[in-house]
Design a protein that fits this description.
Layout (H helix, E strand, L loop, with lengths): L1 H17 L11 E6 L8 E7 L8 E6 L12 E4 L1 E7 L3 E10 L7 E8 L2 E2 L3 E4 L6 E7 L6 H15 L5 E4 L10 H10 L9 E3 L6 E3 L5 E3 L2 H5 L15 E5 L2 E5 L2 H6 L1 H16 L5 E5 L14 H13 L4 E4 L5 E3 L11 E4 L18 E3 L4 E8 L2 E8 L4 E8 L1
Parallel strand pairs: 10-11, 11-12, 16-17, 17-18, 18-20
Antiparallel strand pairs: 1-2, 2-6, 3-4, 3-7, 5-6, 7-8, 7-9, 10-22, 13-14, 15-16, 19-20, 19-21, 22-23, 23-24
Helix pairs in contact: 2-3, 6-7
């Protein structure tokens, strides 16, 4: 009988794991993630999750790194979390918590942990933006499928290749099925030890959206619960359309899913974008979005986006457009020294792959059936771009000069 009970218990455990129950929220914090604010030298946002039982009274503790194991109370600042109960169809109720660290010093390393007495996370590190003319960051195309099994190695190899990265960009379709807590669990699992130490910026793709019972286009409710992104975008698109200034770089995030499917938000983002580009003090400008201006596939044509927005990119001299959606790699021609010409890039980090239309004239460098990640370095008047395959081999590279 004891053996039968053990067998039945094991069967229940395996069934639960297959159904995603391994991603249930627990007493201790999980899904800890940093997000950049628009003042990365002085502030930082952090989100995490717990179960409902342990969810009340959550705090974050912060101190400047001093390279000793002594965490004296006098050196620690305490931040009370803002918390929300979140009901999920797969993993029941949980609680999401967020804090904004403020009054930080530029170019300093900080330690932090989240939770409460008896149920703390480990201590993490992050570094604030330096007020200098250089930085490094990682850009990832669609992750989307088989996140735990086949995307994880690409994300981790990216960090191994650029351990000094200041932040990471995700160009949409982070998951495959909108509003799937199990898939978000896989996404966070893949970023274990990364998301909590390297600030993240992301835009939603088409797979982060669904139609509700009234057929209204709706962003996955996980998005604003588990991320804390800037709210300086077009009205109604907070945390999915925004910009961040980081040293010499302005990063602009566009929500192209609503650009493609909602004329009101399309116009609103175009008007917002022109103002953001027109009043741009930064030396370098990068736009991140999901749908490509130029597609790599015969069957795709994003004219709702490209017709209205491409002239703005070219007029105001956007340097790079970092995109996803087409599950291939492609890069446009490079500008001459005297040109104000945008370089358009499509990339894919996950395992889902499409074919390239080889007749597309805009494509100067391409790859099929290849998982990649990109590392971008800016040093003064030069931008260095490098695309690597999953095993860390350099596949494409170029420089842009101001």
């Amino acid at each position: 009988m004891k053996k039968l009970i053990t067998t039945l218990t094991l069967g229940i455990m395996l069934t639960s794991m297959a159904q995603g129950q391994s991603y249930l929220a627990e007493n201790h914090p999980d899904r800890v993630i940093l997000n950049l604010t628009n003042d990365a030298a002085h502030t930082q946002a952090v989100n995490w999750r717990t179960n409902v039982i342990q969810g009340s009274g959550q705090i974050a503790q912060l101190r400047i790194e001093n390279n000793t194991p002594e965490f004296a109370d006098s050196s620690i600042r305490v931040f009370q979390a803002e918390s929300n109960v979140f009901a999920d169809r797969e993993n029941n109720q949980s609680m999401y918590h967020n804090v904004s660290f403020d009054q930080l010093q530029p170019d300093h390393t900080y330690n932090y942990r989240v939770g409460k007495e008896g149920a703390w996370s480990e201590w993490f590190q992050f570094r604030t933006a330096a007020q200098v003319d250089s930085l490094s960051f990682i850009y990832l195309g669609d992750a989307q499928n088989d996140l735990r099994s086949r995307w994880t190695r690409v994300y981790r190899k990216a960090i191994q290749t650029c351990p000094e990265a200041d932040f990471v960009l995700h160009a949409g379709d982070l998951i495959n099925r909108s509003n799937s807590d199990n898939e978000w669990g896989e996404w966070f699992y893949a970023g274990t030890g990364i998301n909590s130490s390297y600030p993240q910026l992301m835009v939603p793709g088409n797979h982060e959206y669904f139609r509700d019972e009234q057929k209204v286009l709706t962003l996955d409710p996980h998005w604003q619960q588990q991320f804390r992104l800037p709210e300086n975008g077009a009205a109604g698109l907070e945390e999915s359309n925004y910009f961040v200034d980081y040293g010499p770089l302005r990063i602009i995030a566009l929500n192209t899913q609503v650009i493609m499917l909602d004329s009101t938000y399309r116009t609103a983002q175009a008007l917002w974008l022109e103002e953001v580009l027109k009043n741009n003090p930064s030396k370098w400008t990068v736009v991140m979005c999901h749908h490509p201006v130029y597609s790599t596939a015969k069957s795709r044509d994003n004219y709702q986006f490209s017709d209205l927005f491409r002239p703005l990119f070219e007029k105001y001299g956007v340097h790079l457009l970092l995109q996803g959606h087409d599950h291939t790699y492609a890069r446009s021609a490079l500008p001459s020294k005297k040109e104000k010409k945008t370089v358009y890039i499509v990339s894919v980090a996950g395992p889902k792959m499409y074919q390239i239309d080889t007749q597309k004239e805009w494509i100067q460098k391409s790859a099929e059936n290849t998982q990649l990640f990109q590392v971008i370095n800016i040093k003064g008047n030069t931008l260095y771009y490098k695309a690597y395959t999953a095993d860390g081999v350099l596949y494409d590279h170029f420089e842009l000069h101001r």
